[in-house]
Amino acid sequence: MTATLPECHHATTMIHNVYFWLKKDLSAEQVETFENELIALKTIDYLEHGFVGKPAPTEERPVTDHSFNYSLTLHFKNLQDHEFYQKECPKHLHFVDVCKPFFDQVKVYDTSPIH
After folding, report:
1. DSSP assignment string, 86-109
2. What does pTM read for this prediction?
3. Which residues form the signal peptide (predicted)?
């Protein structure tokens, strides 16, 4: 049985936050390919906003995690756009196909507004 969200949630914007830990033995060329493919995801035309980054040089604190290599933040207008991105978006499918061999770990934190 598939759970469905109440209708009001289908129009809710959402932020898709992804953190990548790359394999330690990647060549400079592989890292460059990963970066270029990651940056290309920001150009998806139905996004509200896209951001690609690396850990900021902030102070080490117990609550700060600088262990990841790259982050991707995509702002979707609604959950349908996110579902399309995950299952059908050619740019995302290409990214996964090309870049999945480059990372050891990936974590995703999807968020929606509470107000």
Report:
1. HHT-HHHHHHHHHHGGGEEEEEEE
2. 0.87
3. none
